[in-house]
Amino acid sequence: MKYNIDFEILGSIVTLVIAYNFRMNYVARTRSDKAFLKMVYGILASQILDMASAVTISIESPKLNVINHILTSGYFICGFITTIAFERYVVSYIAEITRNKVYEVFRRVVIILLFVFALTNPFTGLQFNFDAEGVYHHGSLYVVGYIAPAIFMIASMLFIILYRRCFSKRQWISCVTFVVVVFVAMTIQLVFLNELYLIFGVVPIALLMVMFSLETPDYRKLINTLNELEKAKQEAQSANRVKSEFLANMSHEIRTPINSMLGFNEMILRETNEKDVFSYASNIKKSGQTLLSLVNDILDLSKVEAGKMELVNGDYDTAAVVAELVRMIKPRADEKGLELKLDIDRKIPKKLSGDVVRIGQILMNLLTNAVKYTKKGEVILKISLKEIKGAAAKLYFEVKDTGMGIQKDNIEKLFSEFSRVEEKTHTIEGTGLGLPITVKFLKLMNSRLEVESTVGKGSVFSFLLEQKVIDAVPVGEIDLDIPEADNGVDVYREDFTAPDVHVLAVDDVPMNLMVFKGLLKQSQMHIDTAASGFEAIELIGKNNYDIVFLDHQMPEMDGIATLLKLKQEYPDKVGSIPYIALTANAISGAREMYLKNGFSDYLTKPIDGAALTAIFRKWLPKGKLKEISGSRETASETGEKEDVRLKELEKAGISVKTGLGYAAGDEDFYLEILRDYAAAYGDTKKALVKSFEEKDWKNYEIKVHALKGTSKTIGAVGVSDKAKDLEYAAKDGNTAFIESEHESMLDAYGTLVSNIEEILCRIS
Ligand code: ADP
User: In angstroms, what is the span from residue 109 Cα to ligand 1's centroid?
Assistant: First the structure.
């Protein structure tokens, strides 16, 4: 045979194996895969045609001229298709090129011209021809058959160099290898080897390298799974965030009505002389407090989860923190007949700095559990000093009990929310939130909770905390001023009057102020109220108060900021009288925080009558309080009177029950509010009409909002609802609704007020 095709035979076997492997293991899904497969088939076809033509040309018989023509043309076309497939493979990674219309048109033109050139060759003989003896000869334009594929190889090479960034490292290397191998093989073939067919023996090796750079189906599956996992993770995280935010908002919203319910309940406890009513109200108080602490827990937990919980570090007195913890837990331990033991290291520094509110909450959670899950024996609170390094003290906290204990397998589960692990505990009240909160708080403080427990013997919960030392003097023996255990519900009975005392209560929720006043109804004190810090500052500047109660959480300027501002504006009025903080969070350590901010004391909401009395006794000079004795009229007598006098109002569409509820059940107080409501009619109407005529919807919204609130307070539900609809319409910019409903609301409002005035005239 004229030509040596050994390399090509070997090469075609390799190409066949590649084609087989790709077909068996890969799925041609992407553009690169499809272009690669075309390359494989193109090379295989070229190899077969080249080998066949090598055989037929070697025979050099004119009888084979037609077959030779067909085989050689087919060889050129397949070789050309292979280079186009390679160019498509390269371009599959470069979106910019596939989008380039000029290039795409140019490429098509070249392809068509070459096909025309190849297909017309048997007639023109421009590329090659066979003479009468059947011998092969180059045509006059034979180079075109090499130039056209070379154009695509050169274009591919340029793309590989210019668009390096579009390829991964292994894709790029395999493409470069392919080009280099093809060019080197072509050069050797053209320049040195005439009779040895090398090129298609070598190309399959480069092809194999390209195949290694393709993504295997397993790799793709892995990537898909990872993507799905990432998506699921994101979804779970966002769902969790929404849940946390919802819980945080809801618990905040729920706290306000619970507080006022407990406030009114406190008045029932105080005023009733009926045994049954007293016992019902006592139960309401107990359940209400449980509910409130549950809501507070949910709020804390969701805050930590939403990443909104930040540590608030401040200085605190070690002894005071311990004393307060004992004060809070001792009554519960006494109630169950448990002994509460303290083992406090005398060497602990007297003053430390850290987030005392959270530390108090953590210890309270552990102590409450210890008492809850222990039937008999003792609960021990241990605090010891591990080491002092410079200004940092490492403290060890431990709460130990002799209770039911926890099974080993259950200890890990303790830290997940809402899990209550021991079956036996299901009769004990609880939510499964205490420990998760504890663990989360400790994590915020770079610590962790350790648990050791033996079923039937008891449990030990412990943790280490680093705190800054403020005063290194040892705390020594802690003086515990622990009150006696109280087994019943506190009942508040005002046992003093203080007609000369001037009090200011500041809270942004009017109902809280009303409750405050209601609780002190009998005391004859002069009570002023303010709805904001700004108002409070103004009042304090004008008047001389004996005591001021300042709500902590208020919009715009909170209680702490108000006190700070007062200090600057009226320094003489701050040091001389007690300022009591009102807070919705009854947490251990709060006192420290308020004292640090200049308050004399703090009182938790819902306000407990006894605690309120205690504040007055503690902070007012003895001479100002006059002890009282004697009886009060019974609740039923009051009830009868209410019915007769106020029945008339029901006829005017007013829900007396609602109105009276907002007036702390005080009939006279209610009538007073009604009078105020009626008196404000002229001004309110004028303001409403003015903003309506001027189309000043912002002010209109503010005015109807106020009318909605005041009408609701007196129990005028109809007018309140009408005002509410208008308020929402103003908020939404629905002027058509306002224009159609404004008059009818004013009519209803006017009729209501004239009815109230008439009834008030008759009954007073
Ligand atoms: P709760 O007490 O409201 O159920 P916690 O998160 O505080 O929620 O506690 C979760 C569970 O851990 C409890 O239900 C109880 O089974 C167990 N547990 C916690 N502290 C103790 C303890 N000191 N002794 C025995 N079991 C405990």
Answer: 80
